[in-house]
Design brief:
This protein is mainly beta. The chain has one domain. Helices cover about 10% and strands about 40% of the residues. It contains five helices and 16 strands. The chain has a 16-stranded mixed β-sheet that branches. The longest helix is centred in the first third of the chain and has 16 residues. It is globular and about 50 Å long. The N terminus and C terminus are likely disordered.
Length: about 375
């Protein structure tokens, strides 16, 4: 569930007023510098969080630009789509499904960290967006999980591709959860809107040690798309676990001590860089092919999640929304029928990855 635009019919509800009151007081109560609403469509008056430009703490300009080699590949106007066969543990049992990982570059306005093709300097920041979309059945009802990570491609400080925004949306027949996180240099802001009373609707800030990483962004950073991760060595520090894992494990959004080590290995006959993540009883192994474009060939976790790459295509997927385009899914190794509940067709029908609505001007 996304945060709705304010409407006259909803402004006077106690829940809406309480949320807006928290937003208004957050800069004062949490030590943030207050500021006037930023004019313009991207961060103007009425924006839910009008202080994001200062909150994220990016300097006025990047310390270094992305390389020409990066843009030769990622600036071609297409997205990289990879299909995966996955096993997702839920309610004490493994659930089989399909997953899509979608990587694409797009411009954002740093005042709001929202995509804006019309954003201009000094507000325009190019980001690499990663969407992870998967669905699976739990008995009679389906789960739909959609996460997105937005990482500037230029180097602003710290580890390359440090995220500026992370989203998680989960829908299932009991209810829905929407979770947004905005990382800053020394803290994060977390906005969670949940159907479930134990989680509620909360806005909070959490202090972060210097150099904290985010597990969601590792599927970008460990690909080493524009230089080695952590200068090619092992890493130790603080990590915020991915929001889906925190959602299913009912854990808090807080940094934990972690270590990431690397080694050379093979997956099948393919040489890979194997990254081993260890974080307070949790382990995850991610295999990245050594050769360009250094795709994620698969991963597995100590909680029972397993993913295996099927195939990859570079497509302007946002234009493939016509009747008949469903067949393109087969090129990704995904079911062309998409998600079918029990009795809706083949009993073994596999789920469909969510797709983003077509943009008015450009895709992604």
């Amino acid at each position: 569930m996304s945060v709705p635009s304010p409407r006259p019919s909803s402004r006077n509800t106690p829940r809406f007023l309480a949320l807006m009151g928290m937003v208004a007081l957050a800069p004062t109560l949490m030590g943030c510098a207050s500021e006037s609403p930023i004019p313009g469509p991207s961060g103007g008056e009425g924006a839910l969080l009008p202080d994001l430009a200062t909150f994220t703490g990016l300097p006025a300009a990047p310390r270094a630009s992305a390389s020409s080699a990066f843009w030769d590949h990622w600036g071609d106007g297409r997205a990289e789509l990879s299909g995966y066969r996955v096993t997702i543990p839920r309610y004490g049992a493994p659930r089989e499904g399909e997953m899509a990982l979608i990587y694409v570059t797009e411009p954002h306005d740093r005042r709001s960290w929202i995509k804006d093709d019309d954003a201009t300097s000094p507000h325009r920041v190019e980001v690499l967006k990663l969407i992870r979309s998967f669905q699976f059945l739990t008995g009679i009802y389906p789960y739909s999980v959609f996460s997105s990570v937005f990482s500037p491609v230029d180097r602003w400080g710290g580890e390359p591709f440090h995220p500026v925004r992370i989203h998680l949306d989960v829908q299932e027949w009991c209810g829905s959860v929407s979770h947004r996180v905005w990382p800053a240099q020394d803290r994060l802001r977390s906005l969670r809107l949940s159907y479930f009373a134990s989680e509620g609707e909360t806005l909070r800030e959490v202090a972060l040690p210097e150099g904290t990483l985010f597990e969601e962004a590792l599927l970008i950073q460990l690909r080493e798309l524009d230089g080695p991760f952590h200068e090619g060595g092992d890493w130790e520090g603080w990590l915020v676990r991915e929001l889906w894992s925190l959602r299913t494990g009912h854990g808090p959004v807080e940094p934990v001590r972690a270590r990431i080590s690397r080694s050379s290995a093979t997956r099948g006959a393919v040489p890979v860089t194997r990254f081993q993540i260890e974080a307070e009883g949790y382990q995850r192994t991610i295999d990245v092919e050594e050769a360009a474009p250094r795709r994620i060939l698969g991963w597995e976790t100590s909680t029972g999640e397993v993913a295996e790459l099927l195939t990859t295509e570079r497509l302007a997927y946002w234009s493939l929304n016509r009747l008949g385009d469903e067949g393109v899914r087969e090129e990704l190794g995904l079911s062309p029928e998409g998600f079918l509940p029990p009795g809706g067709g083949s009993a073994c029908a596999l789920p469909e990855a969510d797709s983003e609505p077509p943009e008015a001007r450009t895709g992604g």
